[in-house]
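Page 37, continued from 36.
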């Protein structure tokens, strides 16, 4: 996709403003006029090209080290640099004027840009000599613009619920510029899904892996967005949620459906099945003999097989620099250890026999240690003194989280990782802070990290961000069918087991509760939790399931990675020794207390928008 400096300036002018009123304004004439853009086919292509920037939203920016880290606003982890922007979310202090995840103005600017493109592209003159070239391309450009517009509506929908549908280019003199009302949730869902259906008939099934066109919107992406949208629409947050009964337009229009509709789950299941039936994607399977590596490689390679909608990323090592453990000696990994993973996520990983660690027959132990081998990202490496808590767990655990005495590319970092506190003020451990960092829980992120990147030497990672990947479609189908049926059937088990089989986890059902709707619901929710850890799914899942007041409210825990001097002295060992730090490390302690109230399930419409357009009614609790 080619860039164009002129159109870039034009679109930056569009998306940099944030108010609804400014969104409706004409582009400043001192930059470039709309006519100038669409009187030239190359400029028009630049406008189409820049619409793809809308895929890089707050959810994705974190992987570069910026933006709000969604996982750090859930029970997955804590950002050590969270004063801005995660802390307001975790303390409950965010509001209609302070919301780092607000995309209202940005999204509507992209929607306006798409509307302008769709209204103008057919009028753009094309040289006669280029008619054969552009004749098949213009319909694709339009279909992709419609997808990107629909995706912006989805992002608005999952944040705010009912939002205005504005799909015409409004002049500033149009009364609708300052009197727009919110469309109902059902209206928004219907629009998104209808657009996906329509453009799926136009778009190609896929583009060749690694080609210049890879990353463009495909039929699979359109149908996957439909499935994801319908899953949200069927979920408790949007399906008969009485908490939102009072949210109505001035004319009395009920914005959130108040009658539970079980058939919405079937619509979601059927939409997911339509993606699976394309047979255009396969679960990543680069190293089937090694389930840890088989999963891990999905997140540090381009992976063309599984990703349905990628966000194309340039070659970089920013993630490794920000998220890998730090430490001081010459064998340290040399990252900045930005995240502390919570015990809540660690405990969600089953044993490799498929049983939750709370099951008496799981074999899980909280005491004792073992010696053996762990995958260091490149090869199996001998390890010793590993807590039995980390023995025989779901392989995804080892690919996702660093823990005490874990290993990472031993040829570059020739010692185990040490998160227990020891040395002068803890300075001997890998949780020792570089400026602004400190591993507080005894766990760091491992997922996304490329073992070929040596932060003390060379190497850069080549990966794309999977906005939607095939595993999600399997789990959408499983969840939707389980909720639709009275009890899980073979189709539900098969869909979940397709995802589990990639990491050699036993197929369900295993325990008695797996045979019930409620028990399988918990299994599917946990499967999403571990499969999509640190992929920005958990933040939205706990909201649409209406469980965030349980999961994201109250105490979050970790290992005792920051013991008091009294604890270290009580061991009878040298309080600065590694042995003393390890002796007090393996106990669960509170790391942070979170606040989540009912109003936090949906985001507030920005107060600036309501000041401009009083017809916009505010969400519950704001």
């Amino acid at each position: 996709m080619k860039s164009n400096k002129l159109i870039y300036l034009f679109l930056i002018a569009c998306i940099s403003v944030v108010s609804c009123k400014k969104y409706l304004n004409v582009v400043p004439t001192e930059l470039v006029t709309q006519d100038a853009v669409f009187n030239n086919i190359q400029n028009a292509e630049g406008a189409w090209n820049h619409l793809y920037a809308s895929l890089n939203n707050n959810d994705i920016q974190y992987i570069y080290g910026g933006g709000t880290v969604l996982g750090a606003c859930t029970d997955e982890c804590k950002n050590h640099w969270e004063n801005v922007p995660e802390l307001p979310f975790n303390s409950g202090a965010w509001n209609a004027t302070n919301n780092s995840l607000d995309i209202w103005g940005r999204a509507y600017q992209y929607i306006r840009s798409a509307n302008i493109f769709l209204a103008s592209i057919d009028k753009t003159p094309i040289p006669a000599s280029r008619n054969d070239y552009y004749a098949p391309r213009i319909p694709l450009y339009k279909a992709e613009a419609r997808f990107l517009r629909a995706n912006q509506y989805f992002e608005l929908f999952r944040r705010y619920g009912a939002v205005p549908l504005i799909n015409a280019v409004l002049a500033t003199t149009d009364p609708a510029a300052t009197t727009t009302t919110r469309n109902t949730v059902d209206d928004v869902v219907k629009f998104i899904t209808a657009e996906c259906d329509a453009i799926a008939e136009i778009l190609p099934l896929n583009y060749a892996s690694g080609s210049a066109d890879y990353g463009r919107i495909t039929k699979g992406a359109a149908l996957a967005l439909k499935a994801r949208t319908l899953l949200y629409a069927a979920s408790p947050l949007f399906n008969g949620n009485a908490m939102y009964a009072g949210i109505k337009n001035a004319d009395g229009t009920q914005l959130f459906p108040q009658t539970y509709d079980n058939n919405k789950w079937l619509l979601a299941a059927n939409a997911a099945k339509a993606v699976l039936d394309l047979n255009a994607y396969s679960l990543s399977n680069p190293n089937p003999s090694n389930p840890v590596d088989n999963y891990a490689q999905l997140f540090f390679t381009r992976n063309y097989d599984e990703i349905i909608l990628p966000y194309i990323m340039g070659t970089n090592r920013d993630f490794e620099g920000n998220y890998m453990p730090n430490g001081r000696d010459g064998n340290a990994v040399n990252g900045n250890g930005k995240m502390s993973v919570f015990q809540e996520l660690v405990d969600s990983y089953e044993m490799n026999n498929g049983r939750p660690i709370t099951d008496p027959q799981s074999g899980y132990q909280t005491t004792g240690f073992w010696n053996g081998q762990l995958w260091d990202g490149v090869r199996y490496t001998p390890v010793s003194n590993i807590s039995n808590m980390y023995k025989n767990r779901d392989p995804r655990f080892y690919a996702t989280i660093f823990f005490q005495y874990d290993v990472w590319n031993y040829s570059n970092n020739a010692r185990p990782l040490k998160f227990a506190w020891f040395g002068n003020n803890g300075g001997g451990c890998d949780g020792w802070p570089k400026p602004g960092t400190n591993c507080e829980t005894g766990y760091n992120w491992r997922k996304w990290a490329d073992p070929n990147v040596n932060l003390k030497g060379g190497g850069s990672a080549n990966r794309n961000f999977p906005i939607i990947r095939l595993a999600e479609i399997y789990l959408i189908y499983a969840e939707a069918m389980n909720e639709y049926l009275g009890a899980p059937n073979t189709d539900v088990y098969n869909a979940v087991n397709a995802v589990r089989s990639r990491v050699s986890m036993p197929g369900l059902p295993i325990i008695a509760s797996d045979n019930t709707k409620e028990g399988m619901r918990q299994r599917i929710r946990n499967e999403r939790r571990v499969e999509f850890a640190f992929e920005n799914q958990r933040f939205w899942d706990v909201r649409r399931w209406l469980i965030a007041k349980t999961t994201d409210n109250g105490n979050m825990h970790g290992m005792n990675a920051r013991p008091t001097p009294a604890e270290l002295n009580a061991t009878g060992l040298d309080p600065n020794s590694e042995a003393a730090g390890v002796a007090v490390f393996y106990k669960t302690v509170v790391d942070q207390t979170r606040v989540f109230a009912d109003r936090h399930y949906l985001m507030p419409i920005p107060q600036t928008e309501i000041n401009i357009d009083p017809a916009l009614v505010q969400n519950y609790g704001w």
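The longest strand covers residues 380-387. Flag for discussion at group meeting. The CA atoms of residues 494 and 507 lie 8 Å apart.
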